[in-house]
Amino acid sequence: MPASQHHPVDILRFNTCGSVDDGKSTLIGRLLYDSKSLMEDQIEALERSADITGGGQINLANLTDGLRAEREQGITIDVAYRYFATPRRKFIIADTPGHVQYTRNMVTGASSANLSIVLVDARLGVIEQSRRHSCIASLLRIPHLIVAINKMDLVDWSEARFMEIRDQFEEFLPRLDMKDVQFIPISALNGDNVVEPSKHTPWYAGPTLLGHLESVHIGSDWNLNGFRLPVQWVNRPNNPQDAKLHDFRGFSGQIAGGIVRVGQKVLALPAGITSTVQQIWTYDGPVQEAFCPQSVTLVLAHDIDISRGSMIIGLDQLPGTGTELHAKVCWMHQRPLLRGKKYFLKHTSNTVQAVVSEIEHRINITTLEPEPAPTELGLNDIGEIRLRTAKPLIYDGYAANRLTGSFILVEQGTNATVAAGMLHASREVVKPENADYVI
User: Fold this and answer.
1) What is d(CA 262, CA 298) in angstroms, rounded to the nearest whole number?
2) Contact in structure between 137 and 394 (CB atoms under 8 Å)
3) Mean pLDDT of the chain
4) CA atoms within a 13 Å half-sphere pointing along the CA-CB vector of 78
5) Residue range 228-278, pLDDT digits in tens
6) Containing domain of residue 303, as a range?
7) CA dist., res. 14 & res. 370, Å (int)
């Protein structure tokens, strides 16, 4: 049986962040270049652009800074995604901007990350943006953090300077909910301690950046307690021949939490009806069990009215439910968030109408302390709000499950995504004893 039926593909998603000109794009370029993850045409394009943007020297930042405005200004504006693999792991990288005005882009790029790399310029030490991005990583519940102290070659590879910056960073770490933090001295431009160990840091005994990315344990990052399957579509045979071979009605989606097994009792919401899992199908064929974040099709023992937006759950570790929601949001639009404004709220595969009933406070992103209740939230603000939805939502708190605890707000009329949100746990929990059990 293929290995993919037993274990999810080992993919590490990470983002880079830090202040302007800390070397985020150069670091990613160095990772791709030194790990031999570039195609010949990419290398040729770098060499052709060297005389234009790099003064005759290959500019590794051009691998991620693809917009013309980015190359002309030498800064990152939008989130750039890159993919590469080593024999030990596959990687998805999000290169996020360092400017304060692009906080929303950083939130977007980091929303699905397992790990965040915060770059610190060795000459400048820990500055406001270093704290800001670390705090955002903490708010987004990113479980692993690397503090890459870059441009060490410009401070003569001073161990004392490295330790000084480490001490500065550790002063505010207690405010963050970060349990796995690794400090690495590097030079992204020259490649020291990025892929290969540097001869300039005999005093550093830790792993290289890539070595840590390859070995950091992410298996426990996914929530494997409490089965959740937001239904994306109902799977039916497409033609008569398929119907003869597979005459079933399956429910497809990506598992957002927990483990499901053949023979397990499950509850379909909002219908409130239970059934038993009869078959589990994956791309590779039928399996006896599956878990987050695999994409599957479930065949149930009973014909239940389930459609897109429904959620199939296990009978343990039950989710919350309700129409009164409490959440943190990052506001992403030029027009401010106002109390009483109506939006579409998209949560997993479900879309409902919602109204902002209260703006509780704005969060000072540098200290994580609440500020007095504002009348509105502006572009890039992060704050606590309360929402009222047109129908009950089935969800978990973001702290327990990042997939079923997150949502976006969409402006009605323009369909513009205006906010990303993180739900607090509900006081009201789904009660399966009230369900109409199928026998």
Assistant:
1) 9
2) no
3) 83
4) 11
5) 999 999 988 665 555 455 567 899 999 999 999 999 999 999 888 899 999
6) 228-314
7) 28
